[in-house]
């Protein structure tokens, strides 16, 4: 049996809701290199759910979105 994992991509809106941040804060984190790399689909930015999960586990709670 072939078991392929399905990759889930999050939009900026979905990611901001999941992290409890506004979209501007997401882009500030991106600019500072503190958020996992996004994947570009045309002009749209998407983040892999698995990358965000791993990042959230390794980032102290409340350490992002402060500035």
Task: Please outline the helices and strands.
Elements: E1 9-10, H1 12-19, H2 23-31, E2 39-41, E3 44-48, H3 49-58
Antiparallel strand pairs: 1-3, 2-3
Class by SSE composition: alpha+beta
* Domains (count): 1
Largest sheet: spatial strand order:
1-3-2
Proportion of residues in helical segments:
40-55%
**Ends apart, CA distance between termini:** 48 Å
How many strand elements? 3
Kindly provide the radius of gyration, computed on alpha-carbon positions and rounded to a whole number of angstroms. 13 Å
Strand content: 5-15%
Order of helices and strands: EHHEEH
Biggest sheet descriptor: 3 strands, antiparallel
Describe this structure in words.
- With 67 residues, the protein is α+β, with helices and mostly antiparallel strands.
- The chain is built from three helices and three strands.
- It has helices spanning 12-19, 23-31, 49-58; strands at residues 9-10, 39-41, 44-48.
- Strands 1-3-2 form a three-stranded antiparallel sheet.
- A hairpin with a 2-residue loop joins β2 and β3 (44-48).
- The longest helix has 10 residues, at 49-58.
